[in-house]
Amino acid sequence: MTTMQHEFTADRQVERKRAWSNWATGMLFLLPSLLLFGVFLFYPMVRTVYLSLFLTDSQGVPIVFVGWENFLNLFQSTSFQISAKATALFVLYTVPAGIVLATALAILANQKLRGIGLFRTMFSATMGMSVAASSVIWMFLFNPSIGLFNRILAALNISGVQWLLDPQYALLSVSIATIWMNTGFAFLILLGGLQNIDQSLYESARIAGVSESCKLRKITLPMLSPTLFFVTTVSLINAFQTFGQIDLLTKGGPMESTNVIVYSIYKDAFINYNVGSASAQAVLLFVTVLVVTVLQFKIGERKVHYQ
Amino acid sequence: MRKVELKGITKSYDGKQDVLKAIDVTVEPGEFFVLVGPSGCGKSTMLRMIAGLESITSGELALDGKRANALTPSERDLSMVFQNYALYPHLSVEQNITFGLHVKKVSKREQKERCKEVCGMLGLTDYMKRKPRELSGGQRQRVALARAVVTQAPLCLMDEPLSNLDAKLRAKMRSEIRQLQRKLGLTMIYVTHDQTEAMTMADRMMILSDGDVQQIGRPLDVYNNPANTFVASFIGSPPMNLIDAEMKDSVLVADGHWMTPVTAAMKQKIGSGRVTLGVRPEHISLAKDSEPGFLVQVANVEVLGTETLVTFDFGEATQWIAKWPGQSSVQPGEQIRICVDDRHLALFSAEKGERIVCEAAPVKKVSL
Ligand SMILES: Nc1ncnc2c1ncn2[C@@H]1O[C@H](COP(=O)(O)OP(=O)(O)O)[C@@H](O)[C@H]1O
Ligand SMILES: [Mg+2]
Q1: Looking at the domain B239-357, which fold is it?
Q2: Which residue among B10, B11, B13 has the greatest number of ligand 1 atoms within 8 angstroms of its CB, and so is best to mutate?
Q3: Which residue's CA lies nearest to atom 7 of ligand 1?
Q4: Reported ipTM
Q5: Who surrounds ion ligand 2 at CB < 5 A?
Q6: How far is residue A151 from each of residues A158, A178, A234, A288, B246, measured CA to CA in Å?
Q7: Which of B19-23, B119-123, B288-292 has the highest mean pLDDT?
Q8: Which domains does chain A have, with CATH numbers?
Q9: What is the pLDDT of residues A215-246, one digit of tens each?
Q10: What ranges do the domains of chain B cover?
């Protein structure tokens, strides 16, 4: 009896030892990414929240603890309100239109035709282009005197538009360029989703004699919904964080009409040296993205049909 | 009910190699026609051409006597059950079954009624609101079946519908499908790689190999009179035992020392060449004392309850299987004396493997 008990405790000790060594090995594997995340993500995040509660000097060193004051100032500032509105509009312009466009292109490119590979490459090409290169292209297209758009308008006898300089059009123009830049990624993911749909579903529908539009509504879109959901989530987050093309095309102008929050953060932090306010905006942006994403999961996922 | 005629149907996917070569066959109205053959022989291709899912490279397809080559799948008025069932994962069983009925101008009310009736017939009434992923394999199979039946199309095509089910359920569904087909008077074209399904379900069957028709006929005719060695070894479980034999004087010699005398008529048919000799397992028995037999060594014994399969070494490199009724007490390693029922000997030409038909049976008991 005692020997059995003795053996039992010995077993337990061996088990515990093994569990501990397993845990240590696992941690060792996690260490590089934990370190990277810690240095480049977790620490800056915590630091941002901390800074948002302080008044800082021009080097970003916190001087006075001011509590919620940075936030209160923001809510009262018209500049911030314009910024928030521009961001919301930008998301509204780019995300739905971009996804509809990418879905339409993906459905087109999913046909079995000779040379369809060429179109697939073309439609996904923007994924391989840097924001800088794309912005330069669009800068030329939008150019009031030599740009393609105004030439087309001129050919139609319509007077030209100051695409990037007119506060009425600037945000729309940047949105159009952004849609174009983001289409490649969404297209590629959606095409992959389409190709994953079991062909026999369509064959069965063909035997039933169902129309093409009915196939689209009853088979393609529901079967594609998990992919659409993923693409929507990523696009939303991306849209909230757009910076490059705004900096290159409009620099937040004219009259702050394209001064989306990320750009406003950049300006406050690195041009006006108002790190406290920039941090507060960053915190607000983070919370907004978080809330939108959570809402999307709560509402959107109900409409998704996982297999 | 619907008559399906294939006249010289050929299919090539790449324009070079023919996957199906000049298929000629007529499926009679109300017939249960089984297309059987090993994997990759072109069964699915043929079925999909009949359905209109695959274009016909050359030849003519006629439905009820009318050319149908250019008709779309829906114009052919048929239903199809796919191997993976092709159920819509996002629709309920009921929606799956009635999917596409609106195209045929069936009113909402009638759709409901038909669905109810079919579900009752197939025992799905309790599952109508469920999604396919909440069903077992057998239930999904039934939904696929229900979807074919509910269209009331006179021709039903099935592509290996039972291959995803376990053996027990498969046997049950075999009989259910057959009863359903009879009850509804459907013309059925059924694809399978399983010779048991073909034997048990078919009115007539077609054996396909590498895109070539090997034989068309009723199951028992095919079993008793296989047209060639391929059919002989494909149909029947265990398959027909085969061995090369040579004509010497007036006896057939297999593997150097097993001998069987043949009649004059047979001898004439065979000539002096080599042949392949075939015997079904059930025609090999333990020799009684008075009978001429020959000694073999038992390699393996499988007792199945109602019958026993005895594998024995026959000649240098061949193993044959004998099937005896009852539970035999033969042990592996034992030497036994066996005797072959000569009335059931089958002969095939050695080169092409085609059957050599001999009307008169040999006179004497074989003493191989
Ligand atoms: N879509 C296709 N394109 C090219 N070859 C195909 C296609 N479908 C089938 N095949 C070829 O045709 C032959 C017959 O295939 P299939 O009809 O599916 O065989 P089975 O159903 O009898 O297993 C195979 O050799 C296969 O490789
Ligand atoms: Mg197949």
Answers
A1: OB fold (Dihydrolipoamide Acetyltransferase, E2P) (2.40.50)
A2: B13
A3: B13
A4: 0.84
A5: B 44
A6: 9, 22, 35, 40, 91
A7: B19-23
A8: 69-303 (1.10.3720.10)
A9: 999 999 999 998 999 999 999 999 999 999 99
A10: 4-229, 239-357
